[in-house]
Amino acid sequence: MPDQTAAAARPSAAAHPPISAYALTLLALLTLFWGVNWPIMKIALSEVPVFTFRTVCLGGGAVGLFAIALWKRMPLGIPRGYGWKLTAISLFTITGWNVFVLYGLGMLPAGRTTILAFTMPLWLLPMSALVLHERLSGWKLAGLCIGLTGLAVLVGGEWQSMVSSPLGVLLVLGAAISWAIGTLLTKLYAVPMGAVPFVGWQMVLGGIPIFLLAPLLETDRWFVYSTGAWLAMLYNATVCFVFCYWAWNTLVRILPAGISGLSTLMIPVVGVFSSMVVLGEQPQWPEFAALALVAVALGLIFKPARAQPV
Questions:
Q1: pLDDT at position 11, please?
Q2: Contacts of 87 (CB under 8 A, 6+ apart)
Q3: Residue (of 139, 141, 146, 142) closest to 303 by Cα position
């Protein structure tokens, strides 16, 4: 697993260079593994309470990441003066995201409502332009609009049932905003650590409130889960919380924040189609229309800008 450092400077307003093959490979794997995790999470959460589920995932992910860091002899210490910055990042990317999205989804109908969480690019793009001074090209704005249209198509006829639970909608949107703020802070603070221990510390620091609440809120729910539930938790703790979180933080470091955020638009589409395979749901025209729209959006987002004449 390659490691990326935080040595890169903040992005300038200049147009971004073509996306490297390494970044595209990471993005493709991240999209696949995070996308198929939605039906896998449904399997786990049918038996496992939400805080217990996240405790296992965060704890397992942190242990795995620190084990990799030790194996590769990476420095594990938090650089002096960056402790509070790393804590702030962790509270948004780990605590806020996980608590808001799990409680929000508990109040909303099952299925496509998780797509609300992937409105994250809608919040991150203007943040990155205002704070990081990243350039908002016409292609990127067009890609954002088309991609969000694809997500709106996926929501489809379930919108009325979603707005009947406004608190649930607000919580999931809060999760998306929390993720966007955490991504922005990751780019802004540029903590000088390797990506592997950096993500491991995020899970420890951001997981503390979850670790403390799990035994308080779910003391009567500890029992022997089925093999399917344990396999789902194992997938989350290893593939999602080790590889996917590492890959995401690596992409945030090597790509402009707005581009890394927009690149997540395909994940809910993969989630919907994988739910059809795993849970036996039947595809309808909105799924195929959304897939086409998001594919067009990604093509526009990753379109290299023309070089400026000298």
A1: 42
A2: 205
A3: 139
Q: CA 264, CA 37: separation in Å to the nearest integer?
A: 14
The tens digit of pLDDT for each residue in 227-258 reads 888 999 999 999 999 999 999 999 988 888 76
**CA count, 13 A, side-chain hemisphere, 304:** 7
Domain residue limits, the chain: 21-301
User: How many C-beta atoms surround the C-beta of residue 279 within 10 A?
Assistant: 13
Higher pLDDT, 290 or 21: 21
Residue 193: how many other CB atoms lie within 10 Å: 23
Which of 41-79 are b and which e, b meaning 16 or more Cβ less than 10 Å from the residue's Cβ? bbbbbebbbbbbbbbbbbbbbbbbbbebbeeeebeeebe
Alpha-helical segments (H) within 218-264 = 227-235, 245-254, 257-262
Helix (H, G, I), strand (E, B) or coil at 83: helix
pTM comes to 0.80
Check if the beta carbon of residue 121 is closer than 8 Å to that of residue 141.
no
| Structure-token pair, residue 106 | 């508990």
- What are the φ/ψ torsions at residue 280 (nearest 5 degrees)? 80, 20
Which residue type is seen at 146?
Answer: I
User: Which residues lie below 8 Å from residue 67, measured CB to CB, with a gap of 6+?
Assistant: none
Residue 237, judged by CB atoms within 10 A of its CB (0-12, 13-18, 19+), counts as buried
Task: Report the length, in residues, of the chain.
Answer: 310
